[in-house]
Amino acid sequence: xxxxxxxxxxxxxxxxxxxxxxxxxxxxxxxxxxxxxxxxxxxxxxxxxxxxxxxxxxxxxxxxxxxxxxxxxxxxxxxxxxxxxxxxxxxxxxxxxxxxxxxxxxxxxxxxxxxxxxxxxxxxxxxxxxxxxxxxxxxxxxxxxxxxxxxxxxxxxxxxxxxxxxxxxxxxxxxxxxxxxxxxxxxxxxxxxxxxxxxxxxxxxxxxxxxxxxxxxxxxxxxxxxxxxxxxxxxxxxxxxxxxxxxxxxxxxxxxxxxxxxxxxxxxxxxxxxxxxxxxxxxxxxxxxxxxxxxxxxxxxxxxxxxxxxxxxxxxxxxxxxxxxxxxxxxxxxxxxxxxxxxxxxxxxxxxxxxxxxx
Length: 359
Fold this sequence. Notes:
Elements: E1 18-19, E2 23-24, H1 37-46, E3 51-56, H2 57-61, H3 64-77, E4 85-91, H4 101-112, E5 116-119, H5 121-124, H6 132-135, E6 144-148, H7 156-164, E7 170-173, H8 180-189, E8 193-196, H9 205-213, E9 218-219, H10 230-236, H11 242-257, H12 274-277, H13 279-289, E10 299-305, H14 318-332, E11 336-341, H15 347-350, H16 353-358
Parallel strand pairs: 1-3, 2-3, 3-4, 4-5, 5-6, 6-7, 7-8, 8-9, 10-11
């Protein structure tokens, strides 16, 4: 890839990518992924992601009011973040009892112009539905709430809050295959529950969610650096039309943020800095996103076939799964895939795993 200011030429639907997840600064219990907004922007630039919501770890781990202030100060001090990183302010039930707690939240929302709020019930030790009396006083801002599904020990709390505040969208983030039954059930029950994609890696799950509930209820999320842009690839190759892809990529989040018509716009698009050091990587990424076979031997080292009740799969017949897998491998230029059968993973219930493997 040439060293230019042009972004990776993705599909037309990807002229912008707006991630619904992002966090900066060192937390209390883990090493930081991004120490500062500039580090998050570097990750975004590497994969040509134009925009992201962002939260300060101190707001999640210590206290929302102080952490939210720090986030706004850090974003103000980072010129490159303007127009690209959008605050997701953390909220907690205790704000309703603090002196000027709600007033401070309203000032922060007004000053930063963001409608995004984030709940951290597991870390800050509360039940999600207890946010009702904090969210009600800011409803005139037309907010939406994001919550990491892993932070919610009782998922019915999401439904309880969604039903109590039907005009406030609740975006469930970082869900994996083990959460799909719960997430799909919540989306079926509550029209204001939405799904974010960063950790989803079940076969055709994006298309499945869009077909079941509408693409307007699915939001793109980038995921951590270790994922190497897998969420982008998942969206690029999802069997949906380009209008749906565009909705998920950035339009849905831009609408929730009520950004100017036409969606989020920045003066210059990010160029992936890895192009300077490893041009082949840029070429491979571009070809993969555009659906072209790679000119190298590719081995997919981890996959499963068969049916497991906790996965949301439309096709359970293993012979049909094999044919679909081979067709996709041919299209992407994957030479070999290492798989294990679902039944072999649960040998106590299904008999000897060796015999299942032989099947």
